[in-house]
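#structure-requests
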Amino acid sequence: MFLRAIGRPLLAKVKQTTGIVGLDVVPNARAVLIELYSKTLKEIQAVPEDEGYRKAVESFTRHRLSVCKEEEDWEAIEKRLGCGQVEELIEEAQDELTLIAKMIEWDPWGVPDDYECEVIENDAPIPKHVPQHRPGPLPEDFYRTLEGLLSESKTKIPAATSADTHLKE
């Protein structure tokens, strides 16, 4: 018992560097992560329960917290989460706490009932500052395959009669 309580921390691998400029090693990263994730779960309670943001934050934070509680070693935490180094996870958790505070302040889910959104009709011109996605041409193989499929379907499927089209309407 004594060796397990005292020896394990002494035998744990010590990280020398993160290898990322400006990101220092956090010797007690597991404890810091557990504290940050617990705080995140507490603070996200201020967000309405049915909001997607809250559901997403709670989901990944609970998962990460459970991994941190189950694993003792920083290497095992990094490997199981697969989201970078523990020091990066600490920065992400701190950023998430900042974002939660901002989201509560901004209240994006509290849109008033009388709020009217501008509707742009299909025939309205698109403003010049709005980027337009125009996909490039498809490869010739696509058109050959499509043509082959269409010609096959015409030979196998009988043409619709006027009674069939009347039923669809």
